Amino acid sequence: MKDEKGILFILSGPSGVGKGTVRKALFDQDPDLAYSISVTTRPSREGEKDGVDYFFKAKEDVLKMIEQGELIEYAEYVGNYYGTPKAYVEQTLEEGRDVFLEIEVQGAMQVKENFPEGVFIFLFPPSLEELKNRIINRGTETEDLVRNRLLEAKKEIDMMDAYDYVVVNDDIENAVSRIESIVISEHCKRERIASQYKKAIGSVEL
Amino acid sequence: MKDEKGILFILSGPSGVGKGTVRKALFDQDPDLAYSISVTTRPSREGEKDGVDYFFKAKEDVLKMIEQGELIEYAEYVGNYYGTPKAYVEQTLEEGRDVFLEIEVQGAMQVKENFPEGVFIFLFPPSLEELKNRIINRGTETEDLVRNRLLEAKKEIDMMDAYDYVVVNDDIENAVSRIESIVISEHCKRERIASQYKKAIGSVEL
Q1: For domain B37-96, is the CATH number 3.30.63.10?
Q2: pLDDT in tens, A93-125
Q3: What value does the mean pLDDT of chain B take?
Q4: Which pLDDT band holds residue A156 (cuts at 50, 70, 90)?
Q5: Which residues on chain B are in Cβ contact (under 8 Å) with A175?
Q6: Would the CB atoms of B157 and A197 count as touching at under 8 Å?
Q7: Which tens digits make up the pLDDT trace of B7-19?
Q8: What is the torsional sign of CA A84, A87, A92, A93?
Q9: Residue B136 in contact with residue B146, Cβ under 8 Å?
Q10: Which of A127, A154, A188 sits opposite B167 (nearest CB)?
Q11: Would you call A188 and B166 a contact, using CB atoms and an 8 Å cutoff?
């Protein structure tokens, strides 16, 4: 059935959980997924292409987009803005392609508000002990800093309630395969496809 | 996480769609699934074992089970009763195993009423034209009979609205793989597992 629209999937989770690695492995296996292209105010680096790596914009243009609600989420980072343009996401979905967004928990909450029909996947650490060890082993952070980062992670995990799915990142291959199952299964959801099927039935002559 | 309960999956769809074939192929690939064992009042045949093929019961016992709401669905067929015992389903789910029920649309509607927490999967014919051809080619049915059976199939397809998922049986392997994705993805649903994960977090010392 070809009329079907794409689905926006949002992959998020606490920092340190391995979102980027999982997302890359997923894209290697599923070339049909479209990665959401962000707008940014930072200058392009050598080799980066406008409309491929980012949509490069002037600060005033991005501020205007924010003001007019044209970004489904945005953040400021070291003086530059980064955001996800609604128009690009919607156009890609209209073409029947799924869009995949890998994003921090705070950004995911903005998407939830501006694009509630998205499918929200929370990547969960294999165990909290391991997340603790990873944070401790990352470097020469003081005990207080480690404690703060863990409290932060706990808070982020509390936001799990806003998500549709929870996937444990016990092993990258397992996590990717579970996410692929979620993608397939979401396309089988009755409320997405029933109307097309019913149309198909109606056209059969008795 | 080991506290997780199993899930009851109900596979249904119009007659002629290939439910039995898909179910068998699914069980060949996933030996962890428990097939729901029915009670029946018909006498056991050679080689059939009580508690394996069926729970063989006297008619009065089954009528009593129906009266006391101990069957999540039942039907009478050529003078014998067949039904799905709630106790067996619930006990298997408690053990953490998924239960799979392959059933006619009418029976599925009864399950929906008595066990709404089940996951309902509707198997859809690759095309209505093909379902029509299959019914016509089945034998020497008159034009009127074919028309009636098609009207019946259309009515059954209208019940699609009560289902969670629609899977097209375009190819057995594809259909089985979609159903397996649904099984995996349902186990990742946040509302099923979030509380266990939160418990796991709570136990980590900062």
Answers
A1: yes
A2: 999 999 999 998 989 999 999 999 999 999 998
A3: 88
A4: confident
A5: none
A6: yes
A7: 999 999 987 788 8
A8: positive
A9: yes
A10: A188
A11: yes
Chain segment B35-88, per-residue pLDDT in tens: 888 999 999 999 999 998 899 999 999 999 999 999 999 999 889 999 999 999
Domain segments of chain A: what residues?
1-33+98-206, 37-95
List chain A residues with CB under 8 Å of B132: 204
B165-168 and B54-56 as β-strands: parallel, antiparallel, unpaired? unpaired
Query: Is domain A37-95 classified as CATH 3.30.63.10?
Result: yes
Residue B14 known to bind ligand: yes
Choose the closest CB to B181 out of A184, A190, A204.
A184
- Indicate if the pLDDT at residue B133 is higher than 80: no
Homologous superfamily (CATH) for B1-33+98-206: P-loop containing nucleotide triphosphate hydrolases (3.40.50.300)
Whether the pLDDT of residue A65 is over 90: the answer is yes
- Count A/B contacts: CB-CB distance under 8 Å: 110
Taking residues A60-82, what's their average pLDDT? 94
Alpha helices (H) in chain B, listed in sequence order: 19-29, 59-67, 86-94, 105-114, 128-137, 143-158, 172-187, 190-202
Is the Cβ pair A161, B200 closer than 8 Å? no
Q: Suggest the residue from B4, B164, B166 to mutate for an interface test with chain A (most A CBs closer than 10 A).
A: B166
Q: Where are the beta strands (DSSP E) in A46-198?
A: 54-56, 71-77, 80-85, 99-102, 119-124, 165-168
Which ipTM was obtained for this model? 0.87
* Yes or no, beta carbons of A160 and B188 under 8 Å apart: no
Residue A168 bridge partners (DSSP): A124
Distance from CA of A91 to the nearest CA of B (A): 26
For residue A6, what pLDDT is reported? 94
CB contact under 8 A, A166 and B201: no
